[in-house]
Amino acid sequence: MSGQEGREGGTISDRMSRIEQMCVERGLKMTGQRRLIARVLSESEDHPDVEELYRRAVALDNRVSVATVYRTVRLLEEKGILERRDFGGGRARFDPADRGIHHHLIDVDTGNVIEFSDAEHDALAREIAARLGFELVQLRLEIFGRRR
Predict the structure, then answer these.
(1) Domain of life here (predicted)?
(2) Whether pLDDT at 89 is above 90
(3) CA–CA distances in Å: residue 107 to residues 43, 101, 112
């Protein structure tokens, strides 16, 4: 089914970005500009800050204001759709909350962020929490490094 089919031919989710789907599931009203910002976020393979989101959105629709991007990002964060990350550099960056458990290696020279998973590290974190009498509910690892 293509995204061009009518309501009879496909489901709404066939035409929505994954961030937009999360918004609808949480009962958010989806304006055209929110849909655009959700699409830009869904298509991002990096961790953009608000200014970068704005640049990408305005390239698609020059009617988008930076204030709208800030408000939308704040709302998506409040609803648990986006997670704020602080990778240094003085600007918050954002990560969709649906990406599952993963960690970040931040290149301190370039600001590039490499996502990775490590089952051994995750198991060790659970073991440490259990040893201290806790159940692990969230795990976040951010490693800052420099290429040799």
Answers:
(1) Bacteria
(2) no
(3) 22, 20, 5
